[in-house]
Design a protein that fits this description.
By secondary structure, the chain is mostly helical. It has 10 helices and no strands. The chain has helices spanning about 1-35, 45-50, 55-80, 80-90, 90-100, 110-130, 140-165, 165-195, 200-205, 235. The longest helix has about 35 residues, at about 1-35. It is globular and about 60 Å long. The model is unreliable at about 205-235 (pLDDT under 50).
C-alpha cells in the first residue's frame, strides 16, 4: 500500500514538474523577446535590466515563470529533487518549440539533434537514475562542500563571461544560472518538506542548529507528513 502511494505521488510530481517546465519555457520566451526588443541600442547589463523593469511584457513573462516555479515547488513536495529537476530541464525543449512557432522559424537539424539528446538524457535519469533513493536533506558538511566547490567555479564563469563574448559568454552565464537554480531547488525541497508539517514545525525547526535540524538527513522512505512530535528531542526542547 505504501509503495503504491509513493508511486502515485511520484506520478503527480512528474506531471507538476512537466507543467512547471512548460510555464517556465513560455516565460523564458516572453522575457527573451522583451529583452531583444526593449531597445535597439547596445547597452550594458545593468542598463538593460533597468529598461526591462519598465517593460510590461517582461513583467508578464516573469509572472508566467513565477507560476512555473510555484508548480515546481509543489512537485518537490511530492517527488525527489532528481525527478523534478530532470523533468524541469524539458523547459528548454518547450522554449525551443514555442520560440520557433512564435517567430515563424524552422528548427535546424543541429538543434533537433541536441533536443533529442537532451530528451534521451532526461529519460535515462528518470528511468534508470532511481530518483526515489537517497535522503530528503543533506547534512551541513555536504552543503559546505557544495559551496566550497561551486563558489570559485561560478566566480570564474562570471569573470570569463565578462572577458569573452558571443555564444561562449551566453554559455558561461547559463551555467551560472543553472547551477544556482539547482541549489535553489535543493533548498526549496527542504522548506517544502517542513511546510508539510505545518508553519509551527517550520518555525520551530529554525530554532535548532542547522547541522542538527535543517541539515540532518532523513531515512529513505521516512514520512514527510509526520507531525512535530517526530522532530528530534533536541529540537523539541
Amino acid at each position: 500500500m505504501a509503495e503504491e502511494l509513493d508511486v502515485a505521488k511520484s506520478d503527480i510530481a512528474a506531471l507538476l514538474a512537466l507543467a512547471a517546465a512548460l510555464m517556465i519555457g513560455v516565460g523564458d520566451v516572453i522575457q527573451q523577446q522583451s529583452a531583444q526588443e526593449v531597445t535597439d541600442k547596445p547597452v550594458g547589463t545593468l542598463a538593460l535590466f533597468g529598461r526591462l523593469l519598465h517593460d510590461r511584457r517582461w513583467w508578464a513573462g516573469s509572472l508566467v515563470a513565477a507560476a512555473g516555479f510555484a508548480l515546481q515547488a509543489a512537485a518537490l513536495g511530492l517527488g525527489s529533487v532528481v525527478l523534478v529537476q530532470a523533468l524541469s530541464v524539458t523547459s528548454l525543449l518547450f522554449a525551443l518549440l514555442i520560440n520557433a512557432k512564435v517567430n515563424n522559424r524552422r528548427i535546424s537539424r543541429r538543434q533537433w539533434t541536441w533536443a533529442v539528446l537532451l530528451g534521451a538524457a532526461v529519460a535515462v535519469v528518470v528511468t534508470a537514475g532511481n530518483p526515489q533513493a537517497g535522503h530528503a536533506r543533506a547534512p551541513l558538511h555536504a552543503w559546505a562542500l557544495v559551496f566550497a566547490v561551486m563558489c570559485p567555479a561560478l566566480i570564474l564563469c562570471v569573470i570569463g563571461a565578462r572577458v569573452l563574448s558571443g555564444s561562449i559568454n551566453a554559455a558561461l552565464l547559463g551555467l551560472v544560472s543553472g547551477s544556482l537554480w539547482g541549489v535553489f531547488s535543493a533548498s526549496t525541497k527542504g522548506v517544502v518538506d517542513e511546510l508539510a508539517l505545518g508553519i509551527w514545525a517550520l518555525l520551530h525547526s529554525r530554532s535548532c542548529t542547522p547541522g542538527r535540524c535543517w541539515g540532518s538527513p532523513r531515512r529513505p522512505g521516512s514520512s514527510r507528513r509526520s507531525g512535530p512530535a517526530r522532530l528530534p528531542l533536541h529540537c523539541r526542547r
